Automatic annotation (TrEMBL):
<dbReference type="InterPro" id="IPR007159">
    <property type="entry name" value="SpoVT-AbrB_dom"/>
</dbReference>
<dbReference type="InterPro" id="IPR037914">
    <property type="entry name" value="SpoVT-AbrB_sf"/>
</dbReference>
<protein>
    <submittedName>
        <fullName>AbrB/MazE/SpoVT family DNA-binding domain-containing protein</fullName>
    </submittedName>
</protein>
<dbReference type="Pfam" id="PF04014">
    <property type="entry name" value="MazE_antitoxin"/>
</dbReference>
<dbReference type="GO" id="GO:0003677">
    <property type="term" value="F:DNA binding"/>
</dbReference>
<keyword id="KW-0238">DNA-binding</keyword>
<dbReference type="InterPro" id="IPR013432">
    <property type="entry name" value="Doc_partner"/>
</dbReference>
<feature type="domain" description="SpoVT-AbrB">
    <location>
        <begin position="6"/>
        <end position="51"/>
    </location>
</feature>
């Protein structure tokens, strides 16, 4: 599906087609997540539980930064 990139104030925004917004069950003003994947980005609706899990994961990655760096070798 095609989406339009546009300037919104000093930012850049993407206008989602109505069918996409309906499928995601989102409306104007809702928060969504952009997640980078090997295939590009995915857009998902805001989920408080997911947000909490991501915050915990970021804390863990920060706390164990050196360990994770060594494991990645």
């Amino acid at each position: 599906m095609r989406a339009t990139v546009t300037k919104i104030g000093n930012s850049t925004g993407v206008i989602l087609p109505k069918a996409v917004a309906e499928r995601l069950k989102i409306k104007q003003g809702d928060v969504v997540y952009l997640t980078e994947t090997p295939a590009g980005y995915t857009v998902t609706p805001y989920d408080p539980e997911f947000a909490e899990q991501m915050q915990a994961a970021r804390r863990g990655m920060s706390d164990y930064k050196n360990t994770l760096h060594e494991l990645a070798k």
